[in-house]
Specification:
This protein has one helix and no strands. It has 73 residues and is mainly α. Helix content is 92%, strand content 0%.
Length: 73
């Protein structure tokens, strides 16, 4: 069985370690992006709830106005 020269072993080991580091870095970036997207989802949900509350207020006000108009007739 032939052994690889020391320089070639170092190069292969460097490539393997570099690949592993790239994978770890990519996973880190994915986790950070997922957290950011989760925060965006929470904010969108808060905005949607606020809009729904405003819609209910508007509908309530419309009903009140319609009742006032009917009373005048």
């Amino acid at each position: 069985m032939k052994y690889l020269p020391a320089d070639l072993q170092v190069i292969i080991l460097s490539i393997i370690i570099g690949t592993l580091l790239a994978i770890v870095w990519s996973l880190r970036v994915l986790v950070l992006m997922e957290r950011r997207i989760a925060r965006m989802d929470e904010n969108l949900l808060k905005i949607a709830k606020r809009i729904a509350r405003e819609e209910f207020k508007i509908e309530k006000e419309e009903k009140k106005i319609e009742r006032e108009i009917r009373k005048r007739k």
